[in-house]
Amino acid sequence: MSAETDRQGRLYIPKEVRKKYGEKYHIVTYEDRIELIPVADDPLAAVQEAAGGLRDASIEEIRENVESEAKANAGEKDSDR
Fold first, then answer.
1. What is the superkingdom listed in this entry's lineage (predicted)?
2. Are 60 and 34 part of one and the same domain?
3. Of 31, 54, 56, 71, which one is least surrounded by beta carbons within 10 A?
4. Is the confidence at residue 81, as pLDDT, over 60?
5. Is residue 5 domain-resident?
6. Does residue 18 register a pLDDT over 80?
7. Same domain, 78 and 57
């Protein structure tokens, strides 16, 4: 999917994308690209939902999960090169 800005710099986001991801986005800039990250209508509720499985976990379990996920993500990035 591609899009162009108009003369005033506005970007049209198709209806099906807005319907799936919402109306608010955080713009992240990199050297070679930009990314639009959807922003939840209620960010606190989104964080609570994402952390739902962590409520009963110990700090050590959370740390282990974070470390193993980070290692897995690092491995994926290395294999992409």
1. Archaea
2. no
3. 31
4. no
5. no
6. yes
7. yes
- Tokens found for residue 26: 């955080």
Which amino acid appears at position 25 of this protein? Y
Contacts for 62 with CB less than 8 Å, ≥ 6 apart: 54
Query: Residue 36: what pLDDT?
Result: 92
Give the residue numbers spanning the domain of 76.
51-81
* Angle, vertex CA 46, rays to CA 23 and CA 28, nearest 5: 55
Q: How far apart are the first and last CA of the chain?
A: 24
Residue 61 identity (one-letter amino acid): E
Q: State the total domains in the chain.
A: 2
Can you read off the two tokens belonging to residue 28?
């992240």
Q: What is the pLDDT of residue 28?
A: 94
Half-sphere exposure of 8 toward its Cβ, with a 13 Å CA cutoff? 2
Higher pLDDT, 44 or 39: 39
Are residues 61 and 36 located together in one domain of the fold?
Answer: no
